[in-house]
Amino acid sequence: MKSFLSLILFGFLSTAIFSQATTTQVRVSGTVTDATGMPLPGVNVLVKGTNRGTSTDFDGLFTIDVTSGNLLQFSYLGFVTKEVSVTNATNLSITLDEDASTLDEVVVVGYGTQKKKEITGAVSVVSSETIEDQNPVRVEQALQGRVAGVNISSNSGSPGSASTISIRGISTNGDNRPLILVDGAVIEDLSVINPNDIESINVLKDATAGIYGVRAANGVILITTKGGRKNTNLRVDVDSYVGLQETTRKLPVLNATEYGAIINEAYVAGNQAPPFPNLASLGQGTNWQNEVFRQALLSDVNATVYGGGEKSTYSVGAGYLDQDGIVGGGAVNFNRLTARGSYNLDILENLKLSTTAIYTNSNRKTLSENALGSVLFNAVNMAPTFNVRDANGDFTIADNLGFEVINPLAQIANTFNTNEVDKITGTVGLSYNFWDHFTAESRYQFNYSEVRGRSFLPENLNFGFGKVFNNTGVNQYFVNDSFFRDYTFDNFLTYKNTFADDHNLTVLLGMSVFKTSGEFYNFTGRDVPGNTFAEAGLDGAAVVIDARDINGPAEFDQRLLSYFTRVQYNYKERYLLSAVLRRDGSSNFGPENKFGYFPSASIGWVISDEPFYGTSDVLNFFKMRASYGILGNDRIGAFGYISTLNAEGTYVFDNELVNGVAAGQLSNPEIKWERQKTFDVGFDSRLFNNKIDLTVDYFKRRTDDLLLIPQVSGILGVYAPGAGAPIVNAGSVENSGFEFSISYDENISDDASFNLSYNFTTLKNEVIAVGNESGFIPGGSFGFGQEAPARMEAGFPIGYFYGLQTNGIFQSQAEVDAHATQTDATLGDLRFVDQNGDGLIDGNDRVNIGDPIPDVTMGLNLGFKYKNFDFTAYAFASIGNDIVRSYDRNQNLTNKTNYVLNRWTGPGSTNTYPRVTIGPNSNLLFSDFYVEDGSYLRLQNVQLGYSLGNDVLDQLGIRKLRFYLAVTNAFTLSEYNGYDPSASSGAPIGGGIDQGFYPVPRTYTAGMNFKF
């Protein structure tokens, strides 16, 4: 037997020696990096089919002796394994791509991390690569269309304007904002965050957000900023781009000749003499939108320095953004300077320190927008027969156009206001591991910000007779300063252990203290020195009025004290359980209702790990999960349960009037927690060798005991200066729907790959109850003297539009006579539906005529790479939402959009657009004539990039150099006739009323990513 074995061994050795003699030995060296050019230490480099190999050092370098023709296999946790054939090349540059589908991916969750495979809640992740592909000005723009269940509506397209974020619908008439944490610190305004500083964004959408307690009722957005890496030499990343912005649309208004003809017709119909007897002399006139819209510049530059040693990491970054507005050019501007730093240190092997700091300085100049008398409102309604300036070179006075419509160029030239924000955010944390399985952590997070607003109103400002913007008195200077500070102090203990190799247990026990406070100062200086914004100031003013002398101190102080525990258990990572109990105490409620208990739980089952499942090339992974919990909400003003002296009062002492303070908002000592019951069931799956990732969820959220302000009688004094109705618990709102997300990744060849993802969310919003005497809460405004056009009412979506329904236009007198009594109705007028059948058209015939909440939202994302080229594009769609068209002033001589050219001119001419007249009519009453379908499809971003190859980079001594061209808001498909169907004021009631929304601009950018 020994001889036989020796013979076999001799044969193998002979073959090996012969092979060595006939092949070439090669010593191969190289560098392994990730897609960003960051070196990867510890990458396994293995000669395929053997056990010979090595690993990369701290700089990603390796050296190995191989035989020509061997395959080298590069593998690293979290990255796709790559194989490279060895020829005669002795220097290799290997780039590993992250394995987006790996189940070992670690995801940030509340007070810790968890493997993606083990997550039992509805959690979505947005990576830094996704953000880099888009180059958003604000963080919110990176979420639109990327995350199912998250809807972003632009409050405005003006520079620096905020967006409204809603996660799985609108759950309250109050504050619907999600909780936003940046490296664990609470952030209320995302404008202070530079998107280029973000490493990842995680969105918690279901009951698992309950670990964060009261502030998490509307979901949680966890932002992690970029940090250094251990054992990495100094690295520098520079990202910069410049852009040109323009409006995507101008409303088709009448030119001067068309305008004169329509106005003449309206006057004749009202039995008045036509004001423009010579139409031929009018010509095209002034297009006021061309006068106010500009092409505007945008620029952004960011630099980050980072690295680390064996026990520490560091990262320091700075960025500057400058953006002009497409309305008014440089008169509207936003600039932001950000500086960020982080430092982590292993003080001891089991004691770690982490610190972060972010400083932001932003300055914003704005013009009036989305309101009666705003710049775009005036540009649409200003008569085209007026010139910009008169014969003397002064701005034209807009007489006879109503008291709100003024020359928009004069308005821009005489608007002076700035808003500056200085904010610093910091975190300090200590983590101590002991007894093998225990970790104690303490984190202190703080925010401090100063907001300084300045505005100036020149003297003798005259826009025309009776205009509401006139200032016939002295010049005035306004100072509005606000100071905000908050801190959060978290302490928690984590126990993590595995029993019998299969039972994995993690227990968290903690407490959190939160305090936020603020002070407000408002001064008015009258007859200030100088007559320009640059010269103006309170010093030397003839009179200075301090609002605190009238209304008393303006400040707030709110606090939270919370205790929480969470148990996470899994068996073989197959059966998953997570349970949370949180006790929150809020200073916003009285002693009897201060504390609330909020439990939640979630379960999961990885069916694909079951022995009976076996293996499948089709369905590689399948996990079912469900969650249920109760979350609290206390987002109301402070001290609502007691009476405070913060209103204006006037008293008589010795027969003289003396200004003082009085009780403000009426108190309600019984107010308590708003409670949200949220349910989610869904599954996660991977198919076809993990190339397809599919996630489906059904959710249902019901919010009870809504904290809202009801309508009350004026005899209670609620309309006095500074006074108000009390806060009460009244009403319920329910949101339900489906979320569907699917993505596909494919490496076509060594040179080409592509990815495709699609998601959609359905949403049904319904008000279950409104607990006040009237049964509804009104909101919004339309026209003058009309009741609020939007409502919150049981049985309808929150904020639905409430008005008259039309069914055509009166075509004959017989129709008018046969119809219910309609004030001033005649041929060519809108015909309203008599809903209650009482033979009279009045306010009792109003019904639901529109819903501002979309039924479905969708996102489609495409990426493609070929050699050194990369291409990305993504689109977003909103379907089923309605918008109220309210940007037409409808005065006798104001301009109109050219839809009026399709007006009723006689029997049978049209059944859509009513006649024009200055005579009495009911066509201006709020009805579905003014409600339009706001559905739209928008190509949000298209980007084409080119990266220099590794050979060139090695010669230049840099890690990455990429150039790109991009178009943001490339085009929008919509039937809506206004500027922008994506805009909204963000108000739960009345948010979808368009009084001249500032459109989101189309932006062309050219940029560079440089890493060395």
Task: Tag the structure with descriptive keywords.
single chain, 1012 residues, mainly beta, 8% helix, disordered N terminus
Q: Mind explaining what this structure looks like?
A:
The protein is mainly β. The chain has nine helices and 53 strands. The strands form eleven sheets. It has a 22-stranded antiparallel barrel. Mean pLDDT is 88; it is low at 1-22.
Write the layout of secondary structure elements.
Layout: H1 2-22, E1 25-33, E2 44-47, E3 53-55, E4 61-67, E5 71-75, E6 82-85, E7 91-95, E8 106-109, E9 112-115, E10 123-127, H2 128-134, E11 150-154, E12 163-167, E13 179-182, E14 185-186, E15 198-204, E16 220-225, E17 232-246, H3 256-269, H4 288-292, E18 296-308, E19 312-325, E20 329-348, E21 351-365, H5 375-381, H6 408-413, E22 416-434, E23 438-457, E24 476-499, E25 503-526, E26 543-546, H7 547-551, E27 554-571, E28 575-586, E29 595-606, E30 619-633, E31 647-653, E32 656-662, E33 674-687, E34 692-704, E35 707-708, E36 728-729, E37 732-747, E38 752-762, E39 764-769, E40 776-779, E41 790-793, E42 800-803, E43 806-809, H8 813-818, E44 830-832, E45 847-850, E46 856-866, E47 869-879, E48 882-885, E49 931-933, E50 936-947, H9 950-956, E51 960-974, E52 993-994, E53 1002-1011
